[in-house]
Amino acid sequence: MSNAAYMRPNTRKAYTSFVDKLNKKLQKIAQAWNPRDRDLFLIRLERYFADFYEPLASLYQSRPDFEEQFMALASLIIAAYAERPEPLKKLDVEREITPDWFQRESMVGGIYYVDLFAGTLKGVREKMPYLQELGANYIHLMPLLKPREGANDGGYAVEDYCAVNPELGNMDDLENLATELHSNNMSLCIDLVVNHTAKEHEWARRAMEGDPKYLDYYFTYDESTLPDAYEKTLPEVFPDFAPGNFTWYPNMAGKGKWVWTTFNEFQWDLNYTNLAVFCEMLSYMFFLANKGVDILRLDAVPFMWKRMGTNCQNQPEVHELLQAFHSLMRIVAPSVIFKAEAIVAPQDLIHYLGTGRHTGKECELAYNNSLMVLLWSTLASRKVTIMTHTLLNMPATPVGTTWVTYVRLHDDIGWAITDENAQAVGENGFLHRNFLNEFYSGKFPGSFSRGELFQYNPANGDGRMSGMTASLAGLEKAVEKGNPRDIDLAIRRILLLYSIIFTYGGIPLIYMGDELGLCNDKSYLKNPLKANDNRWMHRPAMPWKVAARRHDAETVTGRIFKEMKRMITIRQQTRQLHGASTAYPLWTDNEHVFAYVRQHPAHGNMVALCNFSEFPVTVGANILMEQKLSWPIRDISQPDNPPLRIEWGRLALQPYQFLWLISEDELNQG
Ligand code: GLC
Q: Which residues form the Glycosyl hydrolase family 13 catalytic domain (predicted)?
C-alpha cells in the first residue's frame, strides 16, 4: 500500500521534495528518534501530505515565498514531534485505533471558568471529585492563556499563547492537570483563539512600531477607503460596545493606520493570507498539544478569511485552512481533535465538520448551535414545528464527527432561526425572533423568563439574549414568588432541555452551575471591566456552599443535581447514544410533542418523546411501530417503571415530561 502512489502528480512531486528535505533534517537527529517513532511519523506524513499540501498550495502558491515557507514546515513538524512526550505518543496510537473515542456515549462534558470554579488550575485538580461525581469526563476550561491586562473579552484577547494566565497558574500546572485527567480517563479541552490576538501580543506590538513583517500579520490600512468598502457588507458583532469592524490608531507605524478589529478594539484580526501566520498558529497548536490538551476549541473560526462584498464569514478558504491545520495535527499529535466554534446559520454550520472534498478532514466537533436555539424557541412557543422542520432539514453529521450539544454556555443566545425555516411551517421568522426576545427578557405577558437583551438594535429589532438556563427557564421568578407549582414546572423545563442534549447526538456539555440550577448573577455590574457586557450575568462563580446542598433532595439544588446525574449515568450506559448513530426528528400528531429517533445499527432504535407544554398531553403511539420498536417497550429514563402502557392508541405525557423509549429485547442484550 502506498499513499504516495495515490497522490495527484503535482502533489506527489511536492511530496518527494518535501520528504527529501525532511529526511536530510531527520538524518541529523536520527539517533535521537527510535525507529518506531520515525516509522509512525513517516507513515502519517505520507498519509496526510496531500491533505495539507493541496489546501496550502491553493491558498498561497501565488506568493513568491511559498516554496521556502512551505519547506519550513518540515522543521516545524519534526521539532514538534520530537518534543511530544512519550505518554502522549502512546495516547496518539490508542486513539488512532479507537477513532470513535470522542463519539462514545460515555462522553459527557462540563464547561468551567478556572477562576470562577476553583480559583486556579491546581484548584481544578482538587475539585476533580466533583467533576467525577457528576460524570463529566470532557473538561472544557474557558480561556486560560495569558490575556491582555484590563478588559479582555473573558480571556479571548490573548497576549501570550505559550503562557498560562498567571492568576490561574502556569504551564506546568496545565500539564499536570492534563496528566491527571488522562489517568482518570478524562480529557481536556481549551480555547485557542485563532482569529485574532490581543493588541498587546508581541506581533501586534511590533506591527504597531511599524515592523513590515508584523504589519503583514494583521489587516492594516493607511486610509479608510478599503475599510469603508468592507463595512458596506459587514455585520457588527458587538454593535453596543464595539461598533464597526476597524479601528484607527493615530500613532501606528509612525503615521497612523486602520486595523481590522471584528470584535473589540483590543482584538486584532489575523491575516491568514500570509502563510507565516498559518505557521505561527500551527506551532501554538503543537505547543499546546504537547502539554496534553486533547481538544482545541478553535475560537471564531468563521471569521478567518475576508472577502470584499461578503459578510467575511464562512468563506471557502476557511475550510482550506482548517483542513491544513487538521492534517498537520494528524501527523504530529493525532490524539488531538478540533472543535469549531462556528455559531452560524444551519446551512453553514455542517461544513465545519468537513463536507464535500473536506469530508473527514476538518473539525471532529462543532457546536450544535441550531439545536440550542431551537430548544429555547420551542420552550417559549410550546410548538415544536419550527424545531422539527429545521432539524429534519439539517444534514447528518459526516462520518467520524459529532456535535457538541448544549443548552447554555458563556455567550449570548442569537436567534439563528432562518426566515425560510419559519415560513415553511407558517410562521414569520422576524416576528418569531422578536417574540423570543420579548419572551426571554420577561416582557411578554405570562413569560416565566428573566433574561436580558444583549446588543439590541432598535433600528431593526435584532437582539440576542443573556441569562442562565435556570433564569431563562423560570426558576428565578418561581423561587422569588415561592410558588411550589411554578418551581416544579421550572425544574421540569431545565431537565427537559438537558434530557434532549444528553440524547440527541454528540457530546453533551453541561455549563457550570446548570447542574445546581444557578440563576443570574448580577455582581458583574460592580466590576468596571465587565459592567458593559451583560454576558457576565450568566458567568457566575461556583457557590460551593450551594453545591454542598446537592445531596439534599428537599432543596431545589438537590432535585436538579440528582436528576442531572441520573440522566448522565443512564446516557453513559446506553449504546444507542453512541455519536455515530444517526439522530433525526419525527413528526408527531401533537404540536407540543417533540420526537426524535436514534438509530444504532447494532443496538436498534431509541425514540424520545418530549412534551414542551405545561399541560398533560397525549400522542399517537404508532410512531413507535413506525420506528420498529417492539413490545414491551421501556422508558429507560425511569428504569424502575413498568413497561410502557398505551390507552386508546395514545401515550400520555405529563407537563414537560420526556420519555426515552427502547424495546425491552434490546435492553436485555446489554
Ligand atoms: C467567541 C467567544 C466569545 C468571544 C468571541 C471573540 O465567539 O465564544 O465569547 O467574545 O469569540 O473572541
A: 96-555
